Amino acid sequence: MDTFLRQLHDELGQDVVYSAAQDIEPWLSDWRGIYKGQAQAVLRPRNTAQVAQALRLCQAHGMPVVPRGGNTGLCGAATPDGSPRNVVISLDRMNSIRALDTIANTLVADAGCILGDLRRAAAEAGRMLPLSLAAEDSSQIGGNLSTNAGGVNVLRYGMARELVLGIEAVLPSGEVFNGLHTLRKDNTGYDLKQLFIGAEGTLGIITGVALRLQPQMHERAVVLAAVESAQQALEFFRLLFGVCGPRLQAFEFFTDACLDLVLAHAEGVQVPFGQRHPAYVLVELADTADAEGLQALLEKCMEQALEQELCLDAVVSSSLAQLQSLWRLREDISEAQRADGPHLKHDISLPIERIPEFMESAAQRVQQAEPGCRPYIFGHFGDGNLHYNLSRPAGADKSWAAEHEHAVADVVFDEVMAYGGSISAEHGIGQLKRGAFLRCKDPVALELMRGIKQLFDPGNIMNPGKVL
Ligand SMILES: Cc1cc2nc3c(=O)[nH]c(=O)nc-3n(C[C@H](O)[C@H](O)[C@H](O)COP(=O)(O)OP(=O)(O)OC[C@H]3O[C@@H](n4cnc5c(N)ncnc54)[C@H](O)[C@@H]3O)c2cc1C
After folding, report:
1. Are 348 and 322 in a shared domain?
2. Mind spelling out the 3-state secondary structure of 266-292?
3. Which segments does the entry list as coiled coil (predicted)?
4. How far away, in angstroms, is 348 Cα from ligand 1 center?
5. Structural domain harbouring 34
6. 79 & 126 share domain
């Protein structure tokens, strides 16, 4: 055993340090099985002091560190690269709730807590932690903040960043940044906690988080509206936002092609309209109480929308079962596309008012570059977030996606930049989008980011090869 590993064992203990090949194997690949790396050790600390000790040793020996949450990230950011010197630090054993306060409406927890567990703990206390995503029963809150996760409630409550009051993090030097307070108001200089959010583990390791809680929404009402175009969806959104205000919880969009895909691959789904339309919008309103009031508000909105010709047809849910079956038409799209075969995903965001122009222009560019490829466009329209996914042309081999990945991404991302958007709405950069990020990001922003990285991590040990 070399000096570094011996020191790790001596200072952290056998039960924290894993270095046998069979023990570390499960920590070397990503959730989708796209990336695979190497490491000399996996550390599973039990507290912040052990994380600090581990980072101090890694820095002293110049060993690269890969922070690991629930490993549900979609861009290879928690997977070590090919260096056999990597040390993976997993937060999975740091999973205690430190405090939950229903007067201040705050929750303080270890960074390794599973998001779903935190949501359930908040619900048991009669509160809601609004961060919610399909991977919530595997992802950890530290990973959620490190990727600035979005999910289904962004329209009303914002991204993960907007839910955070405080952070405790260990710097590569082993020093602890103690910003774990629950103050609503703290205007004392730079807001350093924000730098760790979305940093994908490149600045330090988040060990504790303080989050804001919200009242629980007991009542929901949903409408599926058919629209002629993205422009009509935009006008409909304007009306809903004005009339429903903060009760507007979701405004999702999908094209008729997506509906075709769901009908072909998902079981037990039905089209609730007598005829098909170019696109659909799924709207959800939610409130703490007053189901009748909520339903009446939605019906009033729909009357106005139909009168002003802001949609073509609409179905308002009248039971929980119907509400769930309407949501399935939107939620089953990703799975249906996976069943359809390999495809290219682009999780992009745009200034919402430019989505219609973008869709028209991008469709032309993509067809010029890849004639016949099939676009499936859906997403959190109200957040300006589209999943601009493309499947192989009819009759093309399944290898099409892998062969055309980079060329197609260049075309899509060039359009995104031309319309003032972002090449990554939610999933981050990691290894997957590093090239596109370095190509598309404003050079001044990149320079500032490099300066911040140098300040926090002068030895460049934190998650090298990711983001920058
Ligand atoms: C089915 C599915 C659905 C998803 N839906 C969404 C969605 O709707 N919205 C969305 O935004 N994302 C979504 N994702 C992506 C993923 O769930 C999120 O990115 C999630 O926030 C990652 O958390 P994690 O704990 O799994 O992090 P990991 O994958 O383990 O790590 C992600 C990054 O964070 C770093 N990291 C992890 N923990 C820490 C820590 N404590 N300190 C410092 N750095 C750390 C890692 O090094 C890595 O860079 C989805 C993923 C799946 C598989």
Report:
1. no
2. CCCCCCCCCCCCCEEEEEEEEECCCHH
3. none
4. 17
5. 3-90
6. no
